[in-house]
Structure formats: C-alpha cells, structure tokens
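# nightly structure sweep
# worker-07 picked up a monomer target from the shared queue
# config: single-sequence mode, recycle default, output format = structure tokens
# input follows
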Amino acid sequence: MNNAAARRRAMTAFTRINRYFRRYRHTLNRHRTERLIGSLPAEIRKDIGWPNQYRMMQSEDFDHQGIARS
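# output follows
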C-alpha cells in the first residue's frame, strides 16, 4: 500500500469519527435546550413560541447532518 492510499484511508476514518461526534454534540445541545426551555413557566414558553418555533427552525434551517443552510 502506498503512502497516499494510507493517508486517504486515515482521513476517511477521521471524517467518520468527526461526523459522529458532531451529531452527538448536536443531540446533547438539543436535549439540553429542550430541558432548559421546558423548565420555564408556561407563559414564557408561549411567548417564545415553544415548541412550535423550535421544531420549525430545526426542519427549515438545518439539513439532516446539522449543518446550517444559508
């Protein structure tokens, strides 16, 4: 195996691991946000449009890999 092929294979593995950790971090942040906002009084949640605004933001602003679309 030549050196270039070994580097490509290592980068592919790194890319997969990196993608996994980005998804994991995104999931943790989403759950943390849901818990925090869920602990607010009902009047405040209603004022900020929870959970409807948050779900709409997720479906419109982010693709399935958690990358913001501009």
